[in-house]
What does this fold into?
Amino acid sequence: MKLSLKTKTVLLLIAIMVVLSGTTILVGSRRIGSILETHYSADAKELAYTVSKSLDVDKATELSNAVLEIYNSAEKKVTSDEWGSREFYQYVGLYTDIKELDCYKELYEQVRAIQDVNDVDCVYVYTVIHDERVGVYMLDADPEEPCPIGCIDTIVDNNDAIFDDPAAECDPYVTNTESYGWLVSCMAPVIDKDGNVPCYIGVDISMDEVRGSQIRYVAALVILLVSISLILCAISILLVNRTIVKPINILSEAAVKYCKGEKTGARLGFAAIDIHTGDEIEALSESMKQMERDINDNIANLLEASKELTDTKERAQRMNELAYKDALTGVRNKTSYDIEIMRLKNELADGHTKFGIVMIDLNYLKRINDSYGHENGNIAIIKLCNIICAIFQHSPVFRVGGDEFVVILKNTDYDKVRSLVTTFNTTIDEVSMDMSINPWERVSAAIGYAIYDVNHDLNVEDVFKRADKAMYARKKEMKSIRV
It folds into this structure.
């Protein structure tokens, strides 16, 4: 069947517009959706793990034990699948007194404050019955429709790893249900000092609003592209002479390059075209440029939502830093030290034995506090911390107690530990005898260290005990000299 040039022109232009519009909508929508899910998932995971580190573990353990005691004694357990039934409310009614416990009230206030600050859908705490592969809610900070205490839910497949290792890292997952809409969720274990996991923190972040914006922008984009396509098709009917072929080929090539360009951000595939035919072809070229500008404007609006997610991530990172930093000295705190010890244990199990521990204890802190006040006592602690950091420059320093510091020997500090300890003792002697500074700044401290010895040490704790023993021996020696 023979077709006129006019018909061929119209069909060609329709084909180009369909491919361009469909590809633009498909690529833009999928890419933006992927960006949003990635950012929301990262935020949910960071917030869940940040909250798990900052939660009061002792209170969480106490609350978990109270909930499990009721759970284990319940004659009939009713899951959330029967929510709204008489049996369900009779079952969760067993946990009514839990809300009167101090540990519940304190944890609720803490979790609720975290939820309000981070503007998430809900933050909740639950314990896991590993044999039954279910989670039992202990606390839900959702102010509108919280899950009742004792509510039972099955653990989703994404978190199966916790049944082999309760402290295993959990990945976030996205759900879309009629009841809750679009949610990105993540759970994180709450780990006590003995490595046990009394409960888990769960975080849900709603994506309904941003998903709604995405749909509206895509709908506007579809209408815009359809409108432009209709205009171009009307114009193309008038293009019947030979001068139309070359400009259309130029536009077609630009469309192909456009689809192969960057998947996000502004595109300038049509902006570089320079057609001056003085007729409908030039109008077509300008329409394509306007379409590109409108598309870029819509994509920019969608990416603005992505920027808000980045801001949330930065806030979560700042919270994470506070969870691992000692407020007085600025060095790492006890929580960070516990994590480092776990890492050392794992490295030791893998055969990495090159490490040592240095113990440092400030002398006469109580005397300084009693004589000059706790504020000057803090100055003494900071003074000692600065000395430690100046000498052990290549190793992490931890404040593990009021006047106790630990250094995990690394890098050149490990090889030069003896000379560094000598330097430390010399520096302490000079500072303690310096009459030009305030009395509370004349700090005195005992130091002891131990290097891992495969013939004597079975684990990291053995190295710690030897370092602690050496430190106390030094403290005793210093006291005898002072006397």
Notes: The mean pLDDT is 85. The longest strand covers residues 181-190. The beta strands are 122-129, 134-140, 152-154, 173-177, 181-190, 199-206, 356-362, 397-399, 404-409, 445-451. The chain has three domains: 5-29+211-317, 57-206, 334-482.
